[in-house]
Design a protein that fits this description.
By secondary structure, the chain is α+β, with helices and mostly antiparallel strands. Helix content is 15%, strand content 35%. The strands form 4 sheets. Strands 3-4-2-1-11-10 form a 6-stranded mixed β-sheet, covered by helices on one side. Strands 13, 15, 16, 19, 20 and 21 form a 6-stranded mixed β-sheet that branches. A 5-stranded mixed β-sheet has the order 5-6-7-8-9, with helices on one face. It is elongated. It starts with 6 loop residues before the first strand and ends with a strand.
């Protein structure tokens, strides 16, 4: 499969959910019915949310369990064989990454970060969260941000952007900054409004109803600061053909005219096209739209879908598990594996026991660190680098089908080097 792979399809969602809990069905927002029927499901989904309910008791629970929004998106996508690979949260800001199961062993250097910009950087009610990763030889960075609101605070939004750019830092030196990645996608409630106090909320409402979007977009603050080089000038945005996404009356498709309607919710991107000798990178955007049928927030969600060029011939040095016939409950069990090519283990690498068809990398039952627990080279194997790792007799406690996952842990970054074939766990026959 990897030899024929030339591009990946990525689907983005950004939605300010206004502290509401999920109530409406999310299938249409994720476009899974259309994708499933035409067999063009995205390879990756990234969901960026703003104003997720962030009371202290919610935050504590979310450290242990998925927040209700993450769970709702995961419940939909797991039916289509997606695995949640990472969630990053900063108070009300949440960014969730999902990957088709067939690609997860090609994920490398996954890392999440955040930057606070609220109250001069002291508070996380505004700011950015991000997830970066390598897959099939390219690096991708996704930023979800919620910038300063209100028409007159344009200078604060510009400052927020530049603070995020300079403060956000990742561990891998080649891509230590956001804009150093091959592909950058910046989504979120950017809170840019329409320029000019002479344009009333009623004027905007009238022009939208007449489908006169172009004269309104000419007043868009984001487009103006991009043209002036004050913020977001490094990024691109496709043509907007949908109505302003804010502010709506709750449970309505009508504007709340206490605020001037504006396009606060956006998806922007950048491609560093000429960084490799063997291929010219590119991103093609297939859709950019809002979803008016979602009425539980005062914002409309916005989605975008892209195809990006990848480099599948770049080796990513994985791990091969030997087939496991069966494991026994309440007994010590083991598995043999070998690192392929020049992959090198570290003391922080671990192998996790997962239920078969797991839908999240957080779903491990138990894990053992490579090289720290009971392990040994396997004698008389055709490959001298074959290792065997042992799990204690408390690891497997109930019958079922299981899988093992090798996770390479490098500081704040992790990669999925291998997944074993499914195997049964049960009591040893009497």
């Amino acid at each position: 499969m990897a030899d024929k792979l030339e591009r990946l399809r990525i689907y983005f969602v950004t939605w300010n959910v206004a502290t509401k809990y999920p109530k409406q069905d999310l299938h249409q927002l994720l476009d899974v019915h259309r994708h499933n029927s035409s067999k063009t499901m995205p390879d990756l989904y990234f969901v960026g949310l703003q104003e997720v309910k962030a009371q202290p008791q919610n935050m504590v629970l979310d450290m242990i369990f998925d927040d209700p929004w993450t769970k709702s998106f995961r419940d939909v996508l797991q039916k289509y064989d997606y695995v949640k690979i990472r969630t990053q949260r900063l108070q009300g800001l949440v960014l969730i990454a999902f990957c088709l199961r067939k690609h997860i062993t090609h994920l490398r250097l996954i890392e999440a970060q955040y930057t606070r910009t609220g109250f001069g950087g002291m508070w996380g009610n505004k700011g950015a969260v991000s997830i970066r990763l390598n897959i099939y030889g390219v690096s991708i960075c996704i930023v979800n941000s919620h910038l300063t609101p209100h028409d007159h605070l344009l200078a604060d939004r510009i400052s927020d952007y530049n603070t995020i750019l300079t403060s956000h830092a990742f561990s891998y030196s080649d891509t230590s900054k956001i804009l150093y990645h091959d592909y950058i996608f910046w989504i979120g409630d950017l809170n840019f409004r329409l320029h000019g106090e002479d344009l009333t909320a009623e004027d905007i409402d009238m022009k939208v109803k007449e489908n006169q979007l172009k004269p309104l977009l000419e007043r868009d603050q984001l487009k103006r600061v991009m043209e002036k080089g004050e913020a977001f000038e490094e990024l691109n945005e496709n043509v907007i053909t949908f109505p302003p996404t804010y502010k709506y009356e709750f449970q309505s498709q009508e504007f709340d005219l206490k605020r001037r309607p504006s396009w606060t919710d956006r998806i922007l991107y950048k491609v560093n096209a000429d960084v490799y000798d063997d291929v010219k990178l590119s991103a093609v955007q297939h859709s950019y739209k809002s979803h008016s049928s979602y009425i539980q927030s005062d914002h409309k969600p916005v989605t975008g879908e892209f195809d990006i060029i990848v480099r599948p011939t770049v080796p990513d040095h994985g791990v091969e598990f030997q087939p496991v016939t069966q494991w026994f409950i309440d007994e010590e069990n083991s598995v043999s594996y070998r690192l392929l090519s020049d992959a090198k283990p570290t003391g922080n690498d671990w192998i996790g026991l997962f239920p078969n068809d797991f839908s999240s990398l957080d779903e491990y039952i138990v894990y053992e660190y490579v090289g720290r627990g009971k392990s040994s080279p396997v004698p008389f194997e055709p490959h001298a680098d074959t290792e065997r790792i042992y799990f204690s007799d408390t690891a497997l406690r109930s019958p079922g089908m299981y899988q093992l996952v090798y996770v390479a842990q490098r500081g704040n970054q992790l990669g999925i080097l291998g997944v074993s074939p499914p195997f049964p766990g049960h009591h040893r026959p009497a």
